[in-house]
Design the sequence.
């Protein structure tokens, strides 16, 4: 499949998803720091449980970088308990706010750093891998980075568009090399893929309700 054809396919998928589901208004957060915290808490967790942990932080007036720095680790872990792996995630949140403090806790300072440099910084923070780093870059900092998750891999694989190498970077390159480098587009596209995965392209797929079933190799096979 040539690059031009891939680009056409990706744009067609986006149009179909938008027609089926409409704008997703993702990430569901009131401000960028909440996005950053959510990106940590959502690791190996259902969003409903992450939301409970976020509510707990807000209730405790702890959804602020300085508040998380000030809280004892054990107390922070107790507050975020609903999201699971709370002891490990408390350590990760401490590392996150330590890094954010190096930018004066100001999201505007992140905007001023080029994307590649900012990504390297994030990947050097304890507990932040590629998906979490890219979620922070896209949804909090507004950088044009495409987030790759298990949902995206599943859908792209079933559509018969998987890259030759089954790596995060190669899946990401599939999108970034064939779509405009636009943060709003990447934001909406990723959110729509998540919506499709939850509504139809599940582990046990519900192909009849999928808006892509006429082009899907998995469905036809």
Sequence:
């Amino acid at each position: 499949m040539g690059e031009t054809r891939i680009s056409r396919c990706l744009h067609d998928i986006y149009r179909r998803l938008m027609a089926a589901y409409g704008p997703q208004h993702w990430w569901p957060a009131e401000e960028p720091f909440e996005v950053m915290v959510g990106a940590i808490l959502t690791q190996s967790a259902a969003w409903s449980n992450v939301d409970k942990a976020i509510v707990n932080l807000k209730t405790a007036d702890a959804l602020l970088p300085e508040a998380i720095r000030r809280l004892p680790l054990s107390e922070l872990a107790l507050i975020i308990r609903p999201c699971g792996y709370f002891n490990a995630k408390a350590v990760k949140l401490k590392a996150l706010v330590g890094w954010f403090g190096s930018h004066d806790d100001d999201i505007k300072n992140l905007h001023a750093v080029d994307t590649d440099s900012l990504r390297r910084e994030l990947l050097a923070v304890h507990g932040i891998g590629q998906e979490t780093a890219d979620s922070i870059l896209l949804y909090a900092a507004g950088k044009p980075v495409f987030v790759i998750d298990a949902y995206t891999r599943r859908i792209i694989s079933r559509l018969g568009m998987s890259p030759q190498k089954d790596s995060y970077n190669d899946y990401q390159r599939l999108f970034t090399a064939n779509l405009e480098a636009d943060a709003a587009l990447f934001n909406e596209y990723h959110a729509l893929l998540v919506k499709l995965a939850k509504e139809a392209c599940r582990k046990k797929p519900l192909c009849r309700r999928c808006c892509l079933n006429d082009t899907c190799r998995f469905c036809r096979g």
About this structure: The domain at 3-23+149-220 is CATH 1.10.1670.10 (Endonuclease Iii, domain 2).
